[in-house]
Design goal:
- The chain is of the alpha/beta class.
- It has four domains: 226 residues, Rossmann fold (3-Layer(aba) Sandwich); 204 residues, Rossmann fold, CATH 3.40.50.2000; 167 residues, HAD superfamily/HAD-like (Rossmann fold, 3-Layer(aba) Sandwich); 73 residues, Alpha-Beta Plaits, CATH 3.30.70.1020.
- 43% of the residues lie in helices and 19% in strands.
- The strands form five sheets. Strands 5-4-1-6-7-8-10-9 form an eight-stranded mixed beta sheet, sandwiched between helices.
- Helix 3 crosses helix 4 and helix 19 packs parallel to helix 25.
- 42% of the residues are buried.
């Protein structure tokens, strides 16, 4: 029997509100970009839906008794099922008004002076995320796809992953992800929990490339995980971070035309005669830059008095988070500024600003979108800003001007708008003047390009793109599942080994042939290992290669007298058995003068660490450093080095308790492939344990049996659980 495919959407709030009056419960749809975007997807009927059933979980702002009363009297109102989660009011208030909106919201929007650091509110954040997980774990079943939304639920993916390791989880952040310099201000436990929580997802979506990069750097600095092409390898699976700029339902706004909208348009035109209309609508929030926008308008009135009485600015502010004091203070500031500007510039026949503090219906909003000449959208920081996109979609005649903040996520897609710095009142004033003077052909040229982009990547494309990439990352994870060398695998390898007449075997050294030592000088090969290598190398069918990060003098000393090939410094120097050393790379070592002082500074700041200099590389070892200090110092050093060598022919390697800088183009992959091409071998084997060996595994893909020590995600075909198991594996080959 085929398992049904269920989509489970989770957000902080449900897409509905329930109102009760005179004993009757009525439903009202919630406002907001997330709700309208997802409802457009959930309510489409194409006949080829990816999911057979859809559910929406969220915290209820109504009582359980009211919900039961509504359910008993009404059928399911949507094409998806509503699943409310009931949370105690005090806990939810500390969670939502506390950590969510007094800590995360201002920090992620770069308003540092507004950020509150309160351990009690973080405990409430943990508690609410845990309550969500309890409710979901009781509902989820194999095959479900879980799609979690926004900053209120960043701990939830990992809470679900701990109990259901194989489930498919997507996460989307609808606000900016801040620079690491801001994110690091969170208490250490908080930021570690948030990063671990997000990495519980399989795919993490953001609006822009900038937010993705900020997140990836925070992952590197907080969790010590590097990325490759936005993929983050973890112990058991790969997680991907990607950009998905949220689209809108283009047709909903472009084809909005009914009697009520036409009536509203007629009222607007009659009220303002031939005056130009500038329009903006924002939720009440300090991030929206409304006071800065008003300052820009005031500067416009000062600089361009010829426009007096020839335009009107309709400013709509939608009530929001009125329980939070900063929002009420913001309202008073806005209204005081509106009153002052109107008092200064109004005449008996005209006032420049029409101010409204209220919600707009869809009909009113559409009428304003269609009649305004300019949309003035200038947030100080905004994850996306769908108002800008809705305005553009509403322009059926492709006329009108969009003035947009360059600090809104939407600016990345809408370069044809008049982009402004919202903090620069002169620039905003000039943009208003330019917009009012822009010719209709110029307006149409810009508007047509923006509309084309919105049509090509609307909300349905956004959702489909997300699920497509979510499916692809699950396929990748499946292909990367650890494949340990079982008895059956060992039997097949031994069969191929015995049947071969020419065998080539590559062995990494530290962590593969020997355990890690606190200092390189303590890692010399023991008697047992030397005997094992001698046994292997005495068989003339075998060619044994030690491929290590050690320098060539050390390898030569340790393996003197054995019939081995040696590759040192990850491929910088090669010595075939019986021949001399051949050194790759540049003779010019000037780059070390730049790198050495930085590594030495890290060594001085980290007791127990030291710097090791080789011919073609220089490394900082921190195995003997206090683990917590070593981790912090290593992340700081990596960040410094990545920026420093960006334009140099150098690579930075984040190894096992070592950070190494080496000449670019020298790696184990290049070196092993070069040796593989020397002779026609019919059995090839490569074993290694860390990131430097991944180059070798990729280069030998399909040409050799590749084995990674440990359970990390790898390009190798098989895994061995530990370093001692490598010795046992090689002994089985020789007996």
């Amino acid at each position: 029997m085929m398992t049904e495919k269920r989509l489970v959407i989770v957000s902080n709030r449900l897409p509905i509100q329930l109102k009760e009056k005179n004993g009757k419960v009525t439903l009202k749809e919630s406002d907001g970009g997330l709700v309208s975007s997802l409802k457009s997807y959930l309510e489409r009927a194409t006949g080829d839906e990816l999911f057979s059933k859809k559910y929406w979980f969220g915290a209820a702002d109504f009582s359980e008794s009211r919900w039961n009363k509504f359910k008993s009297a009404n059928k399911e109102p949507f094409t998806f099922a509503i699943e409310p989660i009931f949370i105690e009011k005090k806990t939810f208030s500390q969670f939502y008004n506390g950590f969510c909106n007094a800590t995360l919201w201002p920090l992620f929007h770069y308003f540092l002076s507004y950020v509150e650091f309160d351990e009690n509110t973080f405990k409430s954040y943990e508690e609410v995320n845990f309550k969500f997980s309890e409710r979901l774990l009781a509902f989820l079943q194999p095959g479900d796809t879980l799609w979690i939304h926004d900053y209120q639920l960043m701990l939830l993916p990992e809470l679900i992953r701990e109990k259901l390791p194989d489930i498919t989880i997507g996460f989307f952040l609808h606000i900016p992800f801040p620079s690491y310099e801001l994110f690091r201000l969170l208490h250490r436990r908080w930021k570690e929990k948030i990063i671990a929580g997000l990495l519980g997802a399989d795919l993490i979506g953001f609006h822009t490339h900038e937010y993705v990069q900020h997140f990836l750097k925070s992952v590197r600095m907080v969790a010590g995980l590097n990325h490759q092409y936005r993929s983050i390898p973890q112990k058991d699976r790969t997680v991907k971070a990607e950009l998905f700029p949220l689209g809108i339902d283009f047709d909903k706004f472009n084809k909005a035309c009914d009697v009520e909208i036409e009536e509203q348009k007629k009222i607007i035109r009659n009220n303002f005669n031939e005056r130009k209309i500038i329009f903006s609508v924002d939720r009440l929030d300090y991030t929206k830059g409304i006071t800065h926008r008003l300052s820009g308008l005031e500067r416009f009135l000062e600089l361009f008095p010829q426009w007096s009485e020839r335009f009107v600015f309709i400013l709509v502010v939608v009530p929001s988070r009125q329980i939070i004091s900063k929002y009420n203070e913001r309202r008073k500031l806005i209204e005081g500024q509106v009153g002052r500007i109107n008092g200064k510039y109004s005449s008996l026949q005209w006032q420049p600003i029409i101010y409204r503090y209220n919600n707009l219906s869809f009909h009113e909003l559409s009428a304003l979108y269609q009649t305004a000449d300019i949309a003035l959208i200038t947030p100080l920081r905004d994850g996306m800003n769908l108002v800008a996109k809705e305005f553009v979609a509403s322009r059926v005649k492709q006329d009108g001007v969009l003035i947009l903040s360059e600090l809104a996520g939407a600016a990345n897609e809408m370069g044809e708008a008049l982009l402004v710095n919202p903090m620069d009142t002169e620039e905003v004033a000039q943009a208003i003047a330019n917009g009012l003077s822009l010719s209709v052909p110029e307006q149409k040229q810009s508007m047509a390009l923006m509309q084309k982009r919105l049509i090509e990547y609307d909300v349905l494309h956004w959702v489909d793109d997300f699920f497509k990439q979510l499916s692809e990352i699950k396929v990748l994870q499946k292909s990367q599942e650890n494949r340990y060398v079982t008895k059956d695998v060992m039997r097949r390898i031994r069969h191929d080994f015995d049947a071969a007449t020419r065998r080539l075997m590559f062995f990494d050294y530290d962590g593969t042939l020997v355990p890690f030592a606190p200092h390189p000088r303590y890692a010399s090969p023991g008697k047992e290992l030397l005997q094992l290598l001698e046994t292997l190398s005495n068989d003339r069918r075998n060619e044994i290669v030690i491929i290590s990060g050690r320098d060539f003098q050390v390898l030569e000393k340790w393996f003197e007298g054995l019939r081995l090939h040696l590759i040192s410094e990850h491929g910088a120097s090669t010595r075939l058995n019986g021949a001399g050393w051949v050194h790759e790379g540049e003779a010019d070592q000037h780059w070390k003068e730049l790198i050495r002082p930085i590594l030495e500074l890290s060594a001085r700041r980290s007791p127990g660490s030291f710097v090791e200099e080789k011919n073609n590389s220089i490394a900082w070892h921190y195995r003997a450093v206090n683990p917590e200090l070593g981790f912090i110092r290593s992340r700081e050093l990596l960040d410094h080095l990545f920026h420093l060598v960006h334009n140099e022919r150098l690579n930075v390697i984040d190894g096992n308790k070592v950070i190494e800088v080496r000449v670019a183009g020298i790696d184990k992959g290049t070196a092993s492939k070069r040796l593989l091409d020397v002779f026609p071998f019919d059995f090839n084997l490569a074993i290694g344990d860390d990131q430097t060996d991944e180059d070798m595994f990729k280069a030998l893909n399909g040409k050799a049996i590749t084995i990674r020590v440990g359970n990390d995600v790898t390009a190798a075909r098989y895994n061995l659980p530990s370093q001692p198991s490598v010795i046992k594996f090689l002994q089985q080959l020789t007996t």
